[in-house]
Amino acid sequence: MTVQIPTASASTGRPARSRLRPSAAIGIAMIGAVLLLAAVPPLTPDFAPFRQDLGSALLAPFADIRHPVGTDALGRDLLDRLSLATSVTLGITLAIVCLNAIIGTTIGILSGYVGGRFESVASVVGNVTLAMPVVLLMIAICAVLRPSAALTIIVLGCTWWVGYARVTRSVSGALRQQDFVISPLTQGADTSWVLVRHIVPNVWPHTLIIAVTDLATIVLLESSLEYLGLGVQPPIPSWGGMIFEGQKYLGANPWIAILPGLAMFLAVAGAQFLSHQFTADGRGALLRRGGMS
Questions:
Q1: Any domain includes 5
Q2: Which of 65, 124, 242, 292 has the fewest Cβ atoms within 10 Å of its own Cβ atom?
């Protein structure tokens, strides 16, 4: 059955109907499963991701009713640790994406609208940022500062914004020439008012599309850093950290590494499926405010 979602037409402003593709529905189901994994176990009375029980170490899934998906080498419940790791990884990922979106969109809007020297400087800074290898940069910074979630958010949040800036610069540069932007200025409107009222509402849909697309990339990149020990430190779990710990016990209990890998797969694949929906239909459905409506 085809599900219809109401949207608005960019040209007429009237409600339109956009088809929710089967791939998008699958993506929603995948991400929903990941969110349930993060939300449900902490609500149970026996939630204890740090409690150790060496007598129950390396239990296989369904071997003990108290540990439905098994335990790790220290006897800690894998379901509880996977739930906490999901919350930690998704929280860091969302923080990085939001920081990238804010920095990139702000720079892009100002570059496209103001232009001139500011645009030239922003272009040079963006090219330099793209040339920096993120992993090597993180290793160098961690050699001086202690690895942490905050450090991961700051480093990745300040090095992945160029895509947002380039797209929003192009959009805001085109909008600058439109009558609905020029007319208020000729009547004495403040530049900041025009930016907030007419530029930002027509730029944020593009930012949203990039953000949804970037979710999968940031999850993989952040988990890779966690795997290398450059992010959240033990005993706090994360997907990358759990995979690193689990690889030592692939013979005894491979599920220690498989379970976080499956959670990562669901999150990445779900984000990719959703990004296809946003890329295909988002521009026409979301550009309905401001002067473009």
A1: no
A2: 65
